[in-house]
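seq/struct pair 1
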Amino acid sequence: MKLLIDNLDGTGLRDYSASLELIPPKLLRRKNRPTQLEFALVAATADFIVPAEGARVILTRRNGTSLFTGYIAKVPEFDYLGWQQSGPAYRYRLLAVSDEILLDKKTLPARHPFVRRSAGDALRQLANDLLPSFFDTTQVEDLDELSWYPCDRQKSWSEHAAEIGVRTRGAYRALDGKLFFSSVGATVHVIDESDSSFSADNLTFAANGNEINRVTVFGQSEPQAHVKDYFLGDGFTSKFYLSQQPFTRSSRILLDEEYQGVALDPTHWTATDPTAAIAVANGNLQISGGTGHDAQTTCNFVEQIELGGAFLLQHGQLVFTAPSDGIIGGLYSGAVAIPNCIAGFRITKVVSDSHIQAIINGASTGPVITTNLTHHYALTTRVYASEIYRSRTIFHSSSHGTGNGRGGDSVADNVRIVLELHDIDPNNPATLIAPSTVLYDGVLSAAPGFCTYALMNAANLHATIAFTRIMRAVDAEVRSALEGAAYRTRLAGNLSDGAECHITADPAVQFFPEYVPALGEQIIVRYRGYGVPSVQLSNAADIAARQRPGDDGVRAAVRVIQSPPTRTAADCENAALALLDDSTAPGWSGQYVTWSDFLPSGADIFPGDSVQVNAPSRGASFQAIVQQVEIDIKDMAGEHSHYTISFADDAAICNSFEFESNSARVALSTNSLLPTAFAPDLVNAEVTDVSSTAITVDAGVWPPSGGGIEVRWTDTAWGPGNDRNLVARFTTRTFTVPRLGRSQSYFLRQYDSANNYSRYTTALHVDYPLS
């Protein structure tokens, strides 16, 4: 072997092999963590140079295969050895870290979370963001999809790589300028006691005996009850208090693009521009022309947009410089093309003017606005969906690996789309706070969960765009109707953005003074309630097999999952099933110590590889994942090294989850331990009539045969055996319940003939005057 170091002084790689001290170099490889090389040097020649921090280090075999590549991570430490004829002598102790240290020393750029990207694609992108084209990523496999992965800028690249590895049951490493990423256990090494090179003394293992056949899983937070709060305006009340705390996600501003610089930010946009019509200058995105055809000149957002919960897309303030043709702010179900546009702003050229109109499902619809070249036009798309998340998280186990994980299914939903235009006349300051014009307000049935977002699809556009923002709104939809009129969406947000109200922390809906609901105006606020997801699942067969007199056979545990994200109770179910896949058998862990000459399967071994241990004389045959490999290089010249291989299966050390150790904040509620079969939620239940003594409810669906709709005064005690807070049970779609006060709440769940209830409650809250 050779130890080569480039001190970055212009002289290139120097051979330091002869300067290695008697202490053997030690190589430490750990799963989903940077590799470390510890070694010590003494001055063996007169031209010895102490390696500097940041120097390139290569440990290579004679055949040119690299055992380690990286960089010295800190200033060398030294030990005084005494005085020699040439002067004082020192031992220099050095620590080198593998190649990803270059990535870890940089801060990730601000970017929108990855949406529906494969794990490998996300890993490649993060590396390319920091060091474009520096690493060879051809050995990075895609693995499974990440439905939503936020890029926390406080974390290093390797921390993100480890997190992505947990979420997709993958393992990464960096070596010789290459990044490797593959499924855990993809490479198998066999440790068999019948092998002639097997050393029985050097194999130690044990079963931990911590079998689990009943697991309670808690997530972080989730949207739970489907809540609809009903209020009645009196002409002067501007604040209406909500009945529950709305579920609201963090990271409110996902993109804030101001178009600084001289080109589009590649972490945000990709452009197709055959005629060079798109430019960035003077703090604006400028578009001047196009090919004259659909979908040939486009500016697309790099991530897909998830149509879940409430969010808004501010496509920016547009100033038209000439009559134009194209689509601004288009959401597309597939490739960018007019037939695929489910929502956007259609710009059409009419003689010497431009017209703006909504485009829905490929067709123009609604009112037409004629533009003025001196005006600014702020175009905004608002999305309201009952389902916050449109895709389930994927969970893995040893039997449900890459491509076969539990979960990942799509979540169906209808989505309300509101397209609004704010016409601003720079010569009239009052227009800054004037109400926006709603070009479209409707529900898209069975809307896709994810869309392509094209800021522009320019056939022949001539305009400048000052900014673009993507923001999460409070996940609440506010609608109102004057007496005898149809309901309209009341825009929530900032007054300066043309909004009419906002959701406060109380929680309440606060209308701005000029938009106070009129006397008799009906108001509906729709949102999801906040809660902590939890599920308890059991392996009934294993419990039955363990039953003995005085022992019910249950082997239970509680897990609070940090990663992968358990965003809903359905995610908790899939996580619990994945945990039970690996926990009913004993968990094996151990070590195998061997010389490099006798490695299992004759190949180098890395964390994330799998070892198949066959030791019938000890009654053991199991497969485990390598967690760590410690290599002591005993003989540089002869290339002999001592390998200590540490391994554990998923029952001993879970390779697909990270858990929280402190769960004191989690409290069990009467609704927290849920079954796995459910009747559909009553998402469309509505209050249809309110009197001083009764309320009429339309459940939105007819109850199933043999089932019904259960109504309670509080969201507890669901089931046929408890009537303590029961209002009534109904077998009809429409029914009447008593009203006992001005402010009244009703909680509904559907049940079927097998007494399976809805997973989530529908809460109808009425706050009307009694007279």
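seq/struct pair 2
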Amino acid sequence: MISRTETQLAKALVEKKRIGEDALQPFLDEAAKSKEGLFALLLKQEALPEETLLLTLSEVLRVPFLGGPDLISEPGVIEKVPLKIAEYYKMAPLKIDHRKLTAAISAPFDLRTQDDIRAHLGYEIVTVLAREKDVLEAIRRFYGFAAGTIGEMMAQQTPAAAAAPAASEAAYEKIENIEQLAGDASIAKLVNQIILEAYRKRATDIHIEPYRGKVKLRYRIDGILYNSNIQPEMVRFIQPVLSRIKIMSNLNIVERRLPQDGRAIVKVEDTQLDLRVSSIPTPYGESIVIRMLPMNRVFDLDKLGLNKKQREIFETLINKPHGILFITGPTGSGKSTTLYACLNRINTDERKIITIEDPVEYEMEGATQIQVVSSIGLDFAKGLRSMLRHDPDVMMVGEVRDLETAEMAIRVALTGHLVFSTLHTNDAASGITRLVDIGIAPYMVASSVEAFIAQRLVRRICPHCKEEDTEIAPELKSRIASELGLRHQPFKVWRGRGCDKCNRTGFWGRLAIYEILLLDEGVKDLVMKKASASDIKRYAVAHGMRTLRQDGWQKVADGLTAPGEILEATPNDEEAPSASEVSDEETAAAAALARKGGGAYVPAVKNVPAGRPRSKEDGRLFMRLSQTVNVSYRIVKTPEFTEDVLRAAPPAEYSVTKNISAGGLLFIAHERLPAGAILEVKVELPGDEEAVECLAKVLRHQELGDKRLWETAVCFLDLSTAMRSRLEKYIERESAR
């Protein structure tokens, strides 16, 4: 028999032309004969989408239709509605107002069902409509992860067991029946649910952490840890859960006082997962972390986030016959993934590839992989010596940690092998100083290393909820444009709104950003002179190297990630000028200055907007001021003439027409001053009695039209700290006006 509600639903569907009357009639006939209602039949046979049916039903019943994000439970409601009732009737309790309970459902309740719920709970039922998957997800969210399984396990406990202290508070010696508990069907089911939930949420790590009287379960998704809502009663089952995990990974379940590492392979849906299990002892039980690695993962150089130029550089580097390629970055920055992608690209039958790793993270067919075992003396250095006897073409060393390993890797490269390895440094240039600091001779670094590649991982904007970020601060967008040289090219900044696909985070997956430092002749010269990492970085940027921050900004401009990800993941480039802002002559002067280690290198900026000072927010070391002040100079030395032939001329007055900072100035000269010339400069600041006097070096010049005027940029060489401070205060004071 068809109810009144279903009759109204059928009429509304036909009137709104969501289904034809002839197409609907068979469903009405079947609903009249069977126990299933019209709504259930239409949904079961996929005659109409669920959301279309629910929206029509919402109009018929005059009740709201809510999306997943709108299903929010008020405090105290969950305690008054048992999980069993919520799961059985598939309703998500939202709020209680006096004696009325509002709940989300995915199909209309009949009168008998409403009477049953009223009898169990003592509340009148007010319903709102939502999709079934949203209702089930809301129940999971409200009551906690694996709440049903934990509830069943609690029901199976005897009264004495239920009154016993939590497992995490029990003494270490009480280990009887651990294997029996760990093998229990409910415990196995709970562990399987933990792993399955992690897989479905795209987690890379599972953290199970016992504390006093409670347990915390966290998943690392796209590099960020997220708490999983679990029932408080799980604390009573934490010990058998941990024992079950230890049995799966062939660990000693009796030993709880020492750290242990193990491995297990499980199948989830169509994917095999390699689980790396690590346990450490804590005062309230063992804390376990499970790293989840897909065994059938495909490593593709084209999917790392490289742009066209970077891909070409990678292709050139990995096809070299010999040398070392270092990938640098902190733990968890994706170095191993990049190395595997490089090896996969050159993994052919013609090449012998051997790797030594700690641990072997991924299995690669065609490569001989060695696992470091420190307990028996098999370390990186010993493994490297043995690898040479196996006639390799390409070798991969998981990490260079000490002088012995570094020396071996470099000597292997010098004997005609291609070597890949990693270092833990903040940027590419620091990789050079790290090798020198641990004892490698500079000439060996210069002659063996082909490149240092720094990388970071940033979250990728979710493609399902991507939208333009109209709330971004104008200063930040201007900074991005400035550092990329996009001042006159409009671009958009994007963000993820947050949706069901990305767990409301706005991000889906990660991509890498890179800083590639090639060891050309100039860099090798600086290495031989033991230049600092900052000097090497300045030189490299002036010669076109894109820093991590700049590569990140490019990913922002391309709509791949958000500015906050770049600011958090990369160091500031305030000492390194953008290559787009540096002329060829300025580049040469910068390199010479870096090699000599003298002075502060602050290049002049092209196209500085009038009246707008530069600041540290623009990625500059010193704030800049666009103001006209008097300046005079005298040539002390030039690279073109010796001092004895310089014309003795009195200082002349000139005007600063572009900008001035505590690091240098940009002014108009009536003669061509060659790059590299040394000047005695005197700057008269309005309102200040004492002029600023110091030596300065010409960085670049540019002829202006046909008036025989040259725009000249200089940097201060020997400006005293007190004088620099006074100049900075003057610029800040004038900028504030």
